[in-house]
Amino acid sequence: QVQLVESGGGLVQAGGSLRLSCAASGSIFRFNAMGWYRQAPGKQRELVATIITGGSTNYADSVKGRFTISGDNAKNTVYLQMNSLKPEDTAVYYCKLHQRASDYWGQGTQVTVSS
């Protein structure tokens, strides 16, 4: 089985920064994709950023230039550095691992940006 544990969420003022971490454990295969998604109250869950084995990344237009996703393969951990945060970034942020045609989700971490 696979377990994902997120950390790093919290309350920050607009313009501030936060760094989220997601540690994966269990049966982790070498080739996979990990990503961050978020869900604000009353809205659908949306993609924030993804990274695949080899380092290729993809970002939602709304976070390009402000957020950076990175990974540490040795630790099976993915990070999301969030800078210049805006109130509209407020959401529960979820980590996802995709491997062998299966998706695994973390429990989510709350990010609240005050204006």
Characterization of this structure:
With 115 residues, the chain is mainly beta. The chain is built from no helices and 11 strands. Strands 2, 4, 5, 6, 9, 10 and 11 form a 7-stranded mixed β-sheet that branches. A 4-stranded antiparallel β-sheet has the order 1-3-8-7, with no helix packed on it.
- Measured between the Cα atoms of the first and last residue, the distance is 40 Å
Anisotropy-based shape: globular
SSE run: EEEEEEEEEEE
What share of the residues lie within helices?
under 10%
- List how many beta strands DSSP finds: 11
Q: The biggest beta sheet, please?
A: 7 strands, mixed
> Kindly state the mean pLDDT as a whole number?
95
Rg result: 13 Å
Question: Which range does the strand content fall in?
Answer: over 45%
Assembly level: single chain
- SS summary, helix count: 0
- Structural class, from helix and strand content? mainly beta
List the helices and strands and how they pair.
Elements: E1 2-7, E2 10-13, E3 18-26, E4 33-39, E5 46-52, E6 57-59, E7 67-72, E8 77-82, E9 91-99, E10 102-105, E11 109-114
Parallel strand pairs: 2-11
Antiparallel strand pairs: 1-3, 3-8, 4-5, 4-9, 5-6, 7-8, 9-10, 9-11
Primary descriptors:
115 residues, 7-stranded mixed β-sheet, 11 strands, 4-stranded antiparallel β-sheet, mainly beta, 58% strand
Would you summarize the structure shown here?
The protein is an all-beta fold and 115 residues long. It is built from no helices and eleven strands. Strands 2, 4, 5, 6, 9, 10 and 11 form a seven-stranded mixed β-sheet that branches. It has a four-stranded antiparallel β-sheet with strand order 1-3-8-7, with no helix packed on it.
